[in-house]
Amino acid sequence: MFKQLETFCAVYETRNFSHAAEQLFISQPTVSTQIKQLEADLQTTLFTRNGRQEIVPTASGQLLYQQAQKLLTTWAATKTAVRSPRQLVKVPCRIGASHTTGSLILPALLAELSTASDRFDFQVTLANSAEILTAMSQHKLDFGLVEKPLVTDHLNRLAFGHDELVHAGDFNSPLWLLREPNSGVRHYTNAFLKARNIQPEQVMVIHSNQMIADLLARGTGQTIISRHVLASTIPVEALSSHYQRQFFLLTNHHPAAALRPVQATITQYLTTWSNG
């Protein structure tokens, strides 16, 4: 049953039987067989195909996905506990952060959490805000720190702190340094370019605020970026209040009981956090 649930989750996330098979290192017929067996056991249809032959989860499939993630997480923890009955089993704690929150907030937060590293196995992932949201929705992360104003019915959002975005760099440069399309900073950059009717002559897409800041420090290009990651020598243009943004902590509606002490520490730290 757990193998079938793992296969089901892979199909749900990839929306493709072949891709799910590649991800699980099994054959496509095996994937199809396991999905059919699961549908037979549950007496329901989990996926349909639309006119373009794309896999689409049914309402039953969407409900099963939410429950399957919880079951698989519990099963993984159970296997670890059974295999190591005489050892102290650390509780996995998966934290995801956007690149901005990863540089501004995460180091000090992890220092706060480090005192509990004897009881928790902390795993940290850096990605853009949209990717963090997806991972949270798929129960692949326990906590997410983002700055893009994302909305989801499946997660809780706690707003905290503020960040100031500025126009920085060589303002005469034809080169614009841009974050990837789904990042929080890119959302504001696109708004800035549209408001000023700017169509960049040259573009370089970089998946790192720090690398962009380093290029600006070398006198290369211009961009929209958080003031807090910039060296004091870089030319800066202050922007309107529309470029003042909040950070958000994403949590699941029903977090694992074992993670409540971590959530309490994170929430307490963030509610008092200030970038000065």
From TrEMBL:
Instruction: Output the Gene Ontology terms for molecular function.
Output: DNA binding
Q: Its family?
A: Belongs to the LysR transcriptional regulatory family.
Gene3D superfamilies, A to Z: Periplasmic binding protein-like II, Winged helix-like DNA-binding domain superfamily/Winged helix DNA-binding domain
Organism, scientific name? Lactiplantibacillus pentosus (Lactobacillus pentosus)
Domain HTH lysR-type, first and last residues per copy: 1-58
Q: Check the record and name the Pfam families matching this protein.
A: HTH_1, LysR_substrate
- Chain coiled-coil ranges: none
Matching entries from InterPro entries are given as:
LysR_HTH_N, LysR_subst-bd, WH-like_DNA-bd_sf, WH_DNA-bd_sf
What is the protein name stated in its UniProt record?
Answer: LysR family transcriptional regulator
Q: What keyword terms does UniProt attach to this protein?
A: DNA-binding, Transcription, Transcription regulation
